[in-house]
Amino acid sequence: IALAELAQRDLIAIAGIANPDAFFSMLRERGLQLSETVAMPDHYDFEIMPRSFQKGQWLICTEKDAVKLWRTPLAEHCTIVAALLALTLPSAFTAALLEKLSSVQPTQ
């Protein structure tokens, strides 16, 4: 589902990542209205989630968290969607990294 299609949905964003606020901000910057944000510790085990959600609620999370959430009982009564994240590195960074790597000698 494209993020634009989620703009009119009542969404709860959930994240078990190192910087959840950056994820929540990114979603808002792309026009999503978040009724709530739930920040959990990085690498959180969603099987032991201390709170529940109402039947029919829509949750949006990272791909990393979706893999865990889709396997929980929560997935039986909520719709859980993953925001696909992409990283584009500046070409100058990529060129500098490749140059640095070309001078590295393999160890034996």
* Spatial strand sequence of the major β-sheet: 2-1-3-4
Biggest pleated sheet: 4 strands, parallel
Task: State the end-to-end distance.
Answer: 48 Å
Q: Outline, from the CA principal axes? A: elongated
Strand content range:
15-25%
The radius of gyration is 18 Å
Helix count? 3
Count the E strands: 4
The overall pLDDT average reads 91
Helix content: 25-40%
Please provide the ordered H/E string of secondary-structure elements.
EHEEHEH
Give an account of the 3D structure.
By secondary structure, the chain is α/β, with parallel strands linked by helices. Helix content is 27%, strand content 19%. The protein is built from three helices and four strands, in the order E-H-E-E-H-E-H. The protein has helices at 20-29, 63-69, 91-102, and strands at 11-15, 34-39, 58-62, 79-83. It has a four-stranded parallel beta sheet. Helix 1 links the parallel strand 1 (11-15) and strand 2. The chain is elongated. The termini are far apart. 17% of the residues are buried. The mean pLDDT is 91.
